[in-house]
Amino acid sequence: MASERERTESRPLSDRVEELLAHEGPLPIVAAGDPVLRRTAEPFDGQIDAGLLARFVAALRATMHAAPGVGLAAPQVGVPLRIAVIEDPAPVPEEVRLARGRVPQPFRVLVNPAYEAVGPYRDAFFEGCLSVPGWQAVVARHAKVRLRALDERGRAVDEEFSGWPARIVQHETDHLNGTLYLDHAELRSLSSNQAMAERWNDPTPARAARALGFLLPD
Q: What are the binding positions for Fe cation in this chain (predicted)?
């Protein structure tokens, strides 16, 4: 006999999205340990119609704002589709902006995104995830990437991102491939949010690397 979860997962995606949207307020965010976060999401190919897609995107954006976060992928709310949203007002001090290349990013919808590295350089910074609440770890990522995707209206996106926006693009696209940031992280750097606030709230992780005993990319 099929379990409740198996019955839910066998229903059409449109029905599952409608059920999610039937409740008011932010969508529930799936935490690490749920298999949906470890599966490759389905390419979007009209599984939900334009009207439902618009409502779903609006709910993803509202959920991202409420968390708060700067990106959210559909699997993080239990929907295994290759859709993500990003937005970053970048309310950070100037020294952080300069060190991390964190500049404001407008709201974007990424449908079926894929990225590739541009150049050999990598940057390492502490990173967190809404599906791994309470923790952060240092992740070395490509400093610049080329993103190819569609937007919510099916228009092609082909754009280069650098600095913190490149990190957001990589993080959210990885979610669609069943990958969490911890898979790339330097585990000796793993720190609670409290430790981050009390010890490692620097523009770069250099001091944390010395104290915790891990290497940063050259």
A: 129, 171, 175
